[in-house]
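Notebook entry, structure prediction.
Reason for the run: the old model in the group folder had no record of what sequence produced it. Starting over properly, with the input documented here first.
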Amino acid sequence: MRFKRNRDTKADSEGNFQIVELSPGTYAVKAELKGFRRTNLQHVIISVAQVASLTINLVIGDIQEEVIVTAGNNFQVDTISTEVGNVITTKQIEQLALVGRNVMDLAQLSPGVQLRDGGEIDPTKNNFTIAAFQGRAGRETQVEWDGLSLQDHTVGGTVQNLGLDSVQEFDLPPDSAQVIIRHPNR
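New structure, fully documented this time:
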């Protein structure tokens, strides 16, 4: 809702619709069909790596009537995907009390992740935080920031520490040694 862009789509004969390549954020969804009341869904939250499912029930009525539904949910269950992931949102990031305010500290919120001092891997990585997944050393952890790799391909770990102000969402896909970070205002 920060940017006023419209994306139109039509439902198929069973009422299914799809809108692809949406950036993470909060959206308003409007559904209308002749002979039915217009329905507006406000505050629909789309996160990184999420397939969102909406159920919109149209009620028979005059076209002039309008139903507005406010969805103030900050937690959504993905009923389409069976993956267990961990997306940490901007609101969660702002409310967490993290010592040092290092982005990699967010990885501790996922099961099976252990943070290591980068100096344990290589002396050039002192003061870098390395996320080790599922008992691995952490050298192979892939860190992406808006699609750019922050991986040090020589000794492992990242080539840059990021502060929390540089993060909108933090995603730890399941069963991988990967961290996906999305920058605000992108």
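Summary: The beta strands are 25-31, 38-46, 66-70, 86-88, 113-117, 129-133, 142-145, 148-149, 169-172, 178-182.
The old model has been moved to the deprecated folder.
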